[in-house]
Each structure stands twice: as C-alpha cells, then as structure tokens.
Amino acid sequence: MEKIKIGIIGAGRIGRIHAENLGRLHEAEVLAISDPFADDSLRKWALELGIGLVTTRSEEVLDHPAIDAVLICSPTDTHVPLIKQAAAAGKHIFCEKPVSLSIEQTAEALEAVRSANVTLQVGFNRRFDRNFRRARELVLSGEVGQPHLVKITSRDPAPPSPEYIRSSGGIFMDMTIHDFDMARYLTGSEAVEVHAFGSVLVDPVFAQYDDVDTVIVTIRFENGALGVIDNSRQAVYGYDQRIEVFGSGGSVAVANDYPNTAEVHTASGVKRDKPLHFFLERYTEAYIEELKQFVSALGGSIPVPVDGRDGYQAELMALAARHSLKLNRPVRLDEARQLRKLATTHEGGM
Amino acid sequence: MEKIKIGIIGAGRIGRIHAENLGRLHEAEVLAISDPFADDSLRKWALELGIGLVTTRSEEVLDHPAIDAVLICSPTDTHVPLIKQAAAAGKHIFCEKPVSLSIEQTAEALEAVRSANVTLQVGFNRRFDRNFRRARELVLSGEVGQPHLVKITSRDPAPPSPEYIRSSGGIFMDMTIHDFDMARYLTGSEAVEVHAFGSVLVDPVFAQYDDVDTVIVTIRFENGALGVIDNSRQAVYGYDQRIEVFGSGGSVAVANDYPNTAEVHTASGVKRDKPLHFFLERYTEAYIEELKQFVSALGGSIPVPVDGRDGYQAELMALAARHSLKLNRPVRLDEARQLRKLATTHEGGM
Amino acid sequence: MEKIKIGIIGAGRIGRIHAENLGRLHEAEVLAISDPFADDSLRKWALELGIGLVTTRSEEVLDHPAIDAVLICSPTDTHVPLIKQAAAAGKHIFCEKPVSLSIEQTAEALEAVRSANVTLQVGFNRRFDRNFRRARELVLSGEVGQPHLVKITSRDPAPPSPEYIRSSGGIFMDMTIHDFDMARYLTGSEAVEVHAFGSVLVDPVFAQYDDVDTVIVTIRFENGALGVIDNSRQAVYGYDQRIEVFGSGGSVAVANDYPNTAEVHTASGVKRDKPLHFFLERYTEAYIEELKQFVSALGGSIPVPVDGRDGYQAELMALAARHSLKLNRPVRLDEARQLRKLATTHEGGM
Amino acid sequence: MEKIKIGIIGAGRIGRIHAENLGRLHEAEVLAISDPFADDSLRKWALELGIGLVTTRSEEVLDHPAIDAVLICSPTDTHVPLIKQAAAAGKHIFCEKPVSLSIEQTAEALEAVRSANVTLQVGFNRRFDRNFRRARELVLSGEVGQPHLVKITSRDPAPPSPEYIRSSGGIFMDMTIHDFDMARYLTGSEAVEVHAFGSVLVDPVFAQYDDVDTVIVTIRFENGALGVIDNSRQAVYGYDQRIEVFGSGGSVAVANDYPNTAEVHTASGVKRDKPLHFFLERYTEAYIEELKQFVSALGGSIPVPVDGRDGYQAELMALAARHSLKLNRPVRLDEARQLRKLATTHEGGM
To answer: Label partner for C160 (CA 20 to 30 A): which of A24, C19, D3, D347?
Structure first.
C-alpha cells in the first residue's frame, strides 16, 4: 500500500506529538513541517524522525505536490485561512480544536472543505480515549438503555498563563468545548438549550480577561435527556476527567486513570497516588488512535470519526454557554448565532 | 438521668421505625403513639415495644402531661397545624420533612416554635449518614480547602405511586429537598440562585400531575461556589446517593454503600452486587443517629443538628427550582417568595 | 410461637453481646446468666435487658428447668465440662470456639452431645458475615467453577496481653482456627495435609510462650485444591479479613469493610479511612445472624449451621499446623492425633 | 553521544518486541538479528526497522565487530553456550530468563561473564512494571515498615502447548521463577527455605510431563519474614498478577491493570471488563523500560538492574521448590544444590 503523505503546520507541543505518533504508523509518512519559529533544534528533531522538509512558511507545506493531507496545529486564529488554503490545494485536513473562535468563520471553513470535496477531521482527541470509547460502546450496545442524564467532569491541574487566557476565546471555547463534544458523542444526541453558571474562584486574572475559571453548564437534549458539565481551571490533585451516562437500563461511569495500582494501608489511613497529572499523560494513547483513525479514514476504510459538523456544533454550544453566562438565562442553540451578532462588542473577551 | 418522654404522631413506616429506634436508646422512652387508622396490629406492635398508649387522636399525644417531645410523622399537610399545637402545649418537636408545601405556612410554624421557645428538629436524615458526615467533617477540617463545586446525585430505585405523586408537592419539594439540604450542609453556605432543567423520561404519569421525573438543578452560592444536583425517579440498579465537594485544596467524594464486598472475576468480566436497594437499608444507621442527636439536643448536650431554618431554606430552594422550571430561567431565592404569590394558580401541582 | 428460653454461662464481652443480640429476637428470651464474678454492675445490666436471674454459679443455669438452651461463653478450659453437664441436663448448646485445646477432650464432649441427642453449635461467627456468606453462595452456585485455590488473610489490629497469650493454646488454636473453619466452609472440602511456617516478628513475648505471631499455613484438600492462610498478630491499619476462592470458572474475592466510602483527592495523593478496626465492629451483624440461626436451628427450620464436627475438624487442622511448625514438615490430619501423643511434653505451650 | 550497537539472537515473539522497543530509544541501535528460521518475512520486518543484517547464524551477530551488546532471545537450552561465546567476544549481554535449567550451568555462565568483565542483565521484566516498581519504592522508603509477609499471585490466562510444557523445565523454572525474583525484589531479602504444594487441576497433560499446573509455594526469608506464591496455569478471566507486602508499619498491595475504567450498573449488578488478558498487554511498558535500563546500565549511568546473581538465586529457589514438591518437605536453598545431584534421574522432567 502507498503511504499517505502528510505535512504538519505548526511545530508546537501538539504538532510534534502528532509527528512522532505518525512516525509509528506504517500507513503514513510525514514529509514536511512548517513553523514560523523553525530553528536548528526543530531541524535536528525533524532529521531524527526522517522528516525531509522543515520550513518557516506554511505555503511550502500546503503547495507541496506530494503531500496528501495536512495537520493544522498552529494558533487558533490561523485555522480558518489555513483550512481554506489547504482545501483549495486539494489537501485533506486534520485541524486542532476549535476550528475558530467565530461560528461564522467556522461555517465558512466548512463550506470551503465541502466545495473542495476534501476530508476534514477536528481534533477532539478524547473520543479516542479507551475509557470514553468503552463508555460510548456500552451506550450504543444498549447496556444502559435510553440515556436520561449525562454528566461530565473536566478539570485541569493548573490554570494556563495570562497570555494564553487572553487569546483562548474563554473557558467555554477553550476548555468546555471538549466536553460539549463529549456530551454529543456519548449521547448520540443534539443539544437544544444550554445554561451556564460561572465564577472566578481560582485566580482573579480570569476576571481581568472577562473570563471565569469555574463553571457548571447544563444541557437540554432533543430527546429530553439532560446533561451537566463541571469545569475548573485548577484541580490540585491533577487532571480530572470523568463521565457518567445514566439511562433507563442503568448507568456507565468512567473513572480517571492512575499512574499505578499500588494501595498503601497504614495506621493513618489508606492511600494511593493521585491521577495522571496532565492531558499528555492521560491521552497518550488517545492521540495515537486519533491519527490512526484519520489515516484510516483517508484510506477509505472507516468514515471520518470527528467531522467538521462536530467541530461546528461544539462551538455553537460554547457560544450558547457564553451568552447564557452573560445574559443569566438559558440560551437555545438556534438563537445563539443571532445573539452572537448583538454581542460583537465583547469580541476578544470570553 | 430522667428519660425523655416521647409521643409519636403517625404510625406509618417511618413513625414505626423511629419508635423502634428510640426503644434502643437508654435516654428516651416512647409513651404514646397516635394514628387515625390505629388497629389491633398496631396495638400488638406497640405492646411488644412497651408503648403504653395507642390512640386514633393526636390530641391525646399532644395533651399528654408526661410527654416532653413529639415526633410528627403524619402526612405533610398536617405538619403545620400539629407543630402549632405541639408548640402551644410546650412540647419539643421532631418533624419529618418537608415542614409544609407552603413557604408561608412553614414560616408561621417556625414563628410558633420560636414564640413557645421549644426545640424543633427537621427530619433531614441524610445528614446523619456516616458517609456524608465524614465528607462534612473533611470539608470542615479544611482537607479540600475552600469549596468551589458541590455535586449531588440522588436517584430512587423506583417511582412512587400515582397517589403519592399527586400529593407530593412535586419532585423538588419531595425528593430534591433532601439534596438542597445536603448542599447547604456540605458547603456550610447559602444558595442565592437556582436553575432547573426537568424532563419526563421515566413515566408519563408525572406529566399528568404537572411534575417531572428527571431533573438537573444548578445552584449559585453566596461565596461564588457552584452546585449541581441530578435526580431521577428510577435507577434500575437501586438507590443511588453520592456526593462530591471540590475545592481549592482537593476533593472529597462519597460512593454508595453495597450489600457486600464480594467481587467475581469470570471469563465474561468482573462483577459485584448492586448498591443497597432502598433508603431504609442505606439509612438504617442514619435514622438511629438522627434520633440519638435529637434526644441529646433536648438533653442540652449538643445544639439541635437540623433546625427550623434548615427546613425553611431547603423549601425555599425547592420553591425557587420550581419557579425556574416553570419560567425557564434562573431564580434567586430572594425573589422566589414573591413569584410564589403570582403562581398560586399552580397550587396543587408541582 | 413459644419462645426459646436461653441461659448464658459467662458474662464477659462476648456473653453480653450475645445477650443483647438475643434481646432483639422475637423467637428467644434470655432467662438467666451466670458468671463467677457477677456483681452489681452486671445485675444492673441484666435488669435493663429483662434477664431475671443473675448468679455466680453455672449450675443454676444448667439446672434451670425452664431453660432450653445454654450459651457457653466462659474460658476455654471450662467448655468441655460445661458441655457434658449441659448435655446431661438435656440442654441444647451454643459453645464459643475452640471447644477445647485438646482434640481428645473435644471428642469426648461431642460424644456426650451425641448421646444426649442435643444440638451443639460452635461459635465460628465469621461464617455469618455477609461478605463471606456471599462468597460461599457464589462458590456453591458454581460461579467460579471447581475450587482450585483458597486464600485467607486474617490479621489482628494488635496482639493480646501476655496473660491471654499464655493460655490461648497458641496462634493456630486461638486465631488460625477461624481460618481453618473458613477454608472448609468456602471450599466445602476437607483438608488432608497442612504445612506451617511461623516467625516471631511482632513481639518477643510470643517466643517466651513457645508461640509465634506471624504464620503462613498451606493446606492440601481431598480433591487436590490448595489453600493458604496468612496471619499476623498486628496489622497497624486495623482488622484485616479477606478471602479469595479461585477455580476453574473464575474467582471470588472479598475485601474488608470500611467505616465509610469517603475518598479524598489532594495534591499529595488519594486517601480514605482505614478498615473497621476490630472484630466487634466488623462482625456486629454476623454475631446477630449467628444466634438467629442457632435459634432457627433449635426451632427446626434449618439444620445447625456449624456443628460439633466443624469444631473438631478445625481443631485437628490447628493441631496438625502446630506439629508442622515443630517438626518443620507437612503433617497429615490423620497422623496429627498420633503425633499429639508424642508431643505431650509441650503441653501448655503452643 | 555514540549509540550503543546491539545484536539480537532469536527472532521469536520476544526478540522482535525488543527490537521494536530498541528502535524507539535514541541511545541504542539494532545492527543485526539472527534466527535459524530467518525468512523473507523476517527480512521485510527488519528492513522496515532499519536493521541492516539478518542471518541464520548467531555467530555473525556474536562476531560482528561493531556490536557492543547482544540480546539472547533464543530457546533456553542455547542460553549458556551463547552467553559464553558472547562473553568471550567481549559483548555485553541481555539474556531472557531462565539463564538455564541447570544451576551448575548457570553458575558456569556467570563465571564466564565475570572473567570477561562484561555486563549481564537477566530478563525479569516484571521488575520494570510501574505497579511493582511503585510497591518496591514504597517498601524501600519505609512506608510499610519492616516486611513481615510478602504475597504474590501469578496466574496465566491459559496453559501453554504440550510441546512447550515438555521443555519448559517445569512450572517452578518456567513460571514461578518470575515470582521468586519478585519476592527477592520486593523484600530485598534472601530466601533460606522453600515449601511447595502442587496439583494437577487444569489439564492432565501436566501430569504426563511430571509437572503440575497449580501450586502454592511458601518461603522463609533470612530475616524471618515469610512469603507465599500462588500460581495457576489457567485463570479464565485473564492474566492475574498481584502482590502484597505487609510489614510492621502497614501494607502495600498492587492490583491488576484493566483495559479501561468503565463501570456499569444495571438491574442485575455492577460490572466492568476483565483484566488485561496477556503478559504482552500488561507488560508493554515494562518491556520498554527494561531495555531502557539495560542501555543506561551499559552507558554507565545506573547499575545493572537485574544481574546474573539475581538469575541464579531465582533458579535456586525454583530448584528448591521442585525438590520440596518431590520430597514433600520444606527444602533449604543451601541443600538444594546437593539434592539436585541425587535427583538427576528426573532430568528432563519438572
């Protein structure tokens, strides 16, 4: 079989991880990587991985005649133009989440993808986590009956830098967006309305950027099922990622992963080590599986596992949540886009 | 020490359990029990327990000169008049939850208790569960730092009868009220605003009585902490009662109790028995502890563990949740009473 | 139904617990209790429980014409004479473990019981623990197939006093005997050979009394299944009582009971409270169930759940283990009695 | 840094896994692989991994001037001659367990290694498992005090083929040997005496080869601590690998790894997926870590983590266990070698 030739745009942490993971797949090959800050260290790393071309210009990747597909791992505000260029160049696309901070621009990007008839996968890596996948399988197989409630906990070990916060698009677009996608994935149903409560409890810097650090978002789904997501920017015990789906036939719950199974009993109690501390540890395998499936989808053996519409819907939920927080009332997804227009003065804020 | 003399009004399931539990306390003695449907079977049961007086008339209990305190275990709509009579007779009072379905009447009952200077304890039994008490201790001792999030799951094994549903006051007043109290107990903080989503997913009979069977209620507390409660009238795997308090220093979570610790590994998977099936099994010890503390409070050795204001606040939260569901918007507790007046046409509904 | 009338011999800790537990059974009634050290405190306690006769002389209990059955809760060296007297008086008998420290005397006691045609139940309380019972049910129902391995952990929270150690009959007769019975109970099979390794690691006082404090005993059963018991006189984290049965179809394992289900996550790890600390807490319900079944067996509704032969076989296993430790070789049960004769110089030691 | 150049002898399952794992290390490089059955499929696999030389002759690897170290992954009966040749050629050596089925030959191999002053690491991969390593760390850091008891469970998901059984050296040398090493690793102490009970319960074919399939081995350590190992050739629920170290300060226990954390509650109970099914899944990371440390040891940054003496001692324990089973008595390690000589007629059996 011919290997799928891949180019990567953006050589930050996640771009490099994808490159290394692709290096282990027999079906794919990374030909090029671009980054405006490409330096000798990057060149050395690329050399070891056998990546032939390292450049500061994304165009060199996008125009590379041998390349079949590109991974867009650059900052969020570059996603939409890059998607349009890649689509125009006939390249298939894997794009990190979110597609953009603007639902209208995301819609334009999806339209470009559609016109060019290329494949787009959005980087919701958690769908590929063995725990969440097993939960999804159990829901699909009817083990818990008709879903009534879905509960998602997602807490980061520590808040990001102020710079990151400023351009993050706010907690809903940056962090909860994964959970919005998870809610849709687990229930197989669309949200119709969203309500959010939020607070600044971790660090006042969030208030400075019109953002919050602690939220509870509730969701009403088409079929009457209800959902809830709780987020915190700081769980001192590490990365906390759990879900539960409760239905007419029972429930399935997924716990965190721990670094080991050792349990200690002493005179002062029972203890074990805290959960895996960060997303790179928790989702090591998920990142590998994510690209495996992207490559398989390009090869035609499976449908694309997370498509543009998945990206769009999660963003729409994030947008509705943001409006809900601002307006202090539940917001329907079908009104979220309209409200968006009224709210443009908040541009750049959460 | 002189034993505290107790009379019980209402000889249903919970009245009898309380009588049997009091029978094991050295500090208390049940002198009388009343029930409009008192019959030979009740008399036989009372005889075995050494309860001297069995009557169909609550007045005989309330006016009994030797009785120090009464337990009000009769239907909810009798609570307020009975509290007023008991207070007027100078009896201390233990009253099952809720005090009433009307926040104004509850306020009147509390006023009567205050005027008469008697003690009132409200029957929020879950506060006495060893698991929840341990969680509360850990929060109080600062183990999890400042609370940021409180999560409460409370699901019944099976829905009640249509007759019960009709006069229950609706899911928030009948079922969630325990969780509202638990939220205040765990955080030690007051709610300021409540939002509810609800659905009828278990049985259409709930819709018939203007009620729902599946809810997610979110709470905003005075100090910015957030809370969420999820309820279902039917968890096929049994009684599901769990909580989590997450804070600046970590989290404490309480799991269900199971009938045994046996775990089976076979070729088809790992299994164990489902959780304790009903509240009487789960809270056996809690009911004993609840009355022990009532008796201790009457003896003056501890403050009353759940007082009238606790009863009132939980009802106010239930009222706010009901308005939220009807109005499809968050409702502040300080407006809930006013809204109540506008909403009197719903009287008798949820 | 006529209540079964019971007398208790020995008013130590366990005698009183049995009396209190019998007080809650409708089918039984305690008429008398004897103890050589009976005093006013005991009389006061008996009065509250409604026990009519308190005496220093066991004869008064044994000769009491109204008494149907006696509970022998006095020191081990009085068991055999008391069993003989009770049998001669036609009383049914519940005797705490072990029946005696001498397999020959135990045999005599059983013969007396047989001749008098009375019922004898031996106090192996752990068979009535909900966890172990569930394991036994699962084995019986074939969930784990044919048993191949049985593993029993049994560790005390703290060593007994030197006085207790001196007259305990040694660790195998005092402590492991429960586990020998558990091994037979769980597998439903008889041991044919036993091997023991032992050490003094907790306290040198054990060596002083020719005893050990840490043992691993292995067992070969009739059907080829193998077993292992590990004991320590001191687990600093509390009472440790677990089992596992592994077979051709899988395994069933029973964990300890904990005082609550609260689990705390902090920056330094995950913790929960240690197991229930002592046998009275762990086996509260088991002691109640044990006497319930004794009373039921006397009433004829069930066979006696732990009979004299059960007591004898566990003692024989303890004897074989003791010989094994002394001889440093495996010892067959059918040779243990013979070896006993050769070993009489060790009388009084372990 | 100069990469360490490695040759692999034996291209079976484990040889290939090691080659692939080495491929991910920056500090090492596989130059050659030999296997008597080397074919096109092996050549294709080697090509993809960039291994330059594929040969049917081990000499080509051993004599390769550029190679620093060899991995011996060929059948057990070839280990000793290959170790001698490798040592003579001045190559460092990683050898799969056991070094040999003959304690005398193993001693000769170790002598050759010593004379040549090369490094030898023996393939006890379980020491590199994150769970067991964490247990070891906790013991070393004094968390459980002085070790008193060590318990090891090790059960395979399914018995090997009759051919494998025939040449396996018996269960103690083939399977329990890992546990003997684990017992030494966890306690940091040497065994002085061993006792074994064994049965044929899984498959009569084991009896045919003078072997057993179910064993319980107990161990007495130098410092008085005691140990027990239970093995079965068939746990229908998958690979079962657990340990517990109990000491004066508490205990540490290590549970199995499971494929995911999903737990399902339904009306019929609570279930989750069974443990990881086979050693390649359970020890994926351990195999990587094992070679990482071998390479680090060759680089001089850490001492060799499992040396020849570790291999020898585990074999000696296996030998003592085998004698114990045959003689039906405990066997001291210092007599095991002598007994070996008397027992040569059993050569080829267990």
So the answer is: C19
